[in-house]
Amino acid sequence: MKILIDDANIEAIKKLYPVFPIDGVTTNPSILAKSGRQPYDVLREIRAFIGADAELHVQVVGRTADAMLEDVERIHSELGANTYTKIPVNTAGLEAIKRLRKAQPSAHITATAIYTPMQAFLAAKAGADYTAPYINRIDNLGADGTQTAKIIQDMFTQNGLPCQILAASFKNSQQVQELAQYGIGAATIAPAVIEGLVKNASVAAAIDDFTHDFEALCGAGVTMKNAK
Ligand code: G3P
User: Residue 114 and residue 64: Cα distance in Å, rounded?
Assistant: First the structure.
């Protein structure tokens, strides 16, 4: 399962990138608004930092298919080849996905704002590369977000649709783990939730114990590099 950072805060991205096995960055209009900076200023900085080969997902804001496709054109021209344009799946979005796939067979398309399996199925048939179910937001509706992602994965398999899932909207490690266990293609996760994947008091205590025991034997500050 690929792991992407769901944020536009360049400092947070720079902090996580060298530590975690990260495959790219995703944003949406609300995330860009939270950065407080002009969209292409922050997106160009993210692209320069993550490099040309990493995935960058950027959402359209236009509300008609025509306006969405104009957004797609600008996004691609500004941010390079490995940029996925995120298109929300309502009727305008479906039309935009279908037209974009026909006009540009190699375009990278992420169908987003997925709350139901049928949205994902239709987007995949229309030509999306990824569909992005909102795990925690689905949970908040009283439905089951991880189960929805699994149903979508099964629908793609049963129907031979070459579309991946980019699960989004996570609030805890359990949601991420369940989807990794099921072989979901990708998850985009906010920085605090990514850090929480390995934040564990038992792990910290175990490592402290190892250091304490070793230093009792060899002296403070000694490691395997300079032990006798
Ligand atoms: O892009 C969709 C995803 O970022 C939503 O996450 O945390 O706002 O539910 P959240």
Answer: 18
